[in-house]
Amino acid sequence: MANLLWLQGGACSGNTMSFLNAEEPSACDLVTDFGINILWHPSLGMELGDNLQKLLKSCISGETPLDIFVFEGTVVQAPDGTGEWNRFAGRAMKDWVTELCDAAQYVVAIGDCATYGGIPATAPNPSESTGMQFLKREHGGFLGTDFASKAGLPVINIPGCPCHPDWVTQILVAVASGRGGEIGLDEFQRPKTFFSSFTQTGCTRNMHFAYKVSATEFGQRKGCLFYDLGCRGPMTHSPCNRILWNRQSSKTRAGMPCLGCTEPEFPFFDLEPGTLFKTQTVMGVPKDLPTGVDKTGYVKLTGAAKAAAPAWAEEDIFVV
Amino acid sequence: MGDTNIRTEIQELLEGGLETEIYPRADTSEDVNKIVNRLQKSGASLIEKLAIAGFTLNTIEHGGIEQPCETCMYYLVHRKYCELPELDVPVEPEWSCRLWRI
Lengths: 320, 102
Description:
- The complex is a heterodimer.
- Chain A is an alpha/beta fold.
- Helices cover about 25% and strands about 15% of the residues of chain A.
- Chain A has 2 domains: about 1-195, 3-Layer(aba) Sandwich (Rossmann fold); about 195-315, Cytochrome-c3 hydrogenase, C-terminal domain (Cytochrome-c3 Hydrogenase, Chain A, domain 2), CATH 4.10.480.10.
- Chain A has helices at about 15-20, 25-30, 50-60, 95-105, 110-115, 165-175, 190-195, 205-210, 295-305, and strands at about 1-10, 35-40, 70, 75, 85-90, 90, 105-110, 130, 135, 140, 155-160, 280, 285.
- In chain A, a hairpin with a 2-residue loop joins strand 5 and strand 6.
- The N and C termini of chain A lie far apart (about 45 Å).
- By secondary structure, chain B is α+β, with helices and mostly antiparallel strands.
- Chain B has 3 helices and 5 strands.
- In chain B, the strands form 2 sheets. A 3-stranded antiparallel beta sheet of chain B has the order 3-4-5.
- The longest helix of chain B is centred in the middle third of the chain and has 14 residues, at about 30-40.
- Chain B is globular and about 35 Å long.
- Chain B starts with a helix and ends in a 12-residue tail after the last strand.
- At the A-B interface, strand 12, strand 13 and helix 9 of A face helix 2 and strand 3 of B.
């Protein structure tokens, strides 16, 4: 039996909504098949008021062993570092977070806000929001660079806006079944098993990427979304096209450009109007090239690939 | 009018001295947006499209990179066609315009 506590800071509850839709395994499977005891969750917890405070204090004191502490949303520090803008159970949420992280065997940050700050931490960041152990790309965040949970791991970051439900439940199962130490993390503390490949990996529009055929308008069923419509699939680490959403599809498969929500910089472009769905260019060349590709190589490859594009690549090959 | 006829008309217009805004090239996304906005407001006039986009019958080199239609992302190789919605015209591979992007 592994005790799990889930709290929300500066959050929209999107990751909770996602989590409750998990299928492999489902949220119910966590309880019935994998021995996870959900002590409290904002949408599932029964305790209120004094009873909730008692539960939280019991976790902090160690009376109730806290195996997994899950945090969703940013750590709000406004105003002036007090955290009073986000009060919970009688005190600033950030103070609960500090003490619960010290008590937990494992700390798991869920979603882009908890991992890297996400949208709330975008300038001018009036809520003084930060991620648990990162603020965008900067290591440290709320808990500091040296933080390690009792099991010896830093915060396990599962980013996304929201993150895929199965990424969450599969990591929770790994931790609950004693394999937490086997979770390899990348430089941004994301589980490598999910975040080593790119969103582009498995995208059904890959052949259009290869032949440099662009989608130029939404609704087109041919063409790659990277060249003109702002898709960040070639430089975003996620398994969105390997572990499909609702077991059916993905943003790019449905014709929606990847927004790069599993990367620390999300949201990109400081949300300036007209930038979200338009590939940013410098002298005609994309400002952000596919990971590992340099400008010279990109221009050469593109010219050659386009010249070799077969006629079918320029036509709508998908049918209903 | 078929693609061939329009392509011929464009060639004759440019050979006949139609002045187009070849420079400044659209170096930044803001530059691109400004030109595209002008195209959207200009309506469907072929001459205005050619002028605003800065069409030329020869390839322009800019910043050390050649910018022919044939390597542009909006170019359909087999139809010899510019698919940028605001232009939407048949072209030749060696032509060029300042909205070129790769």
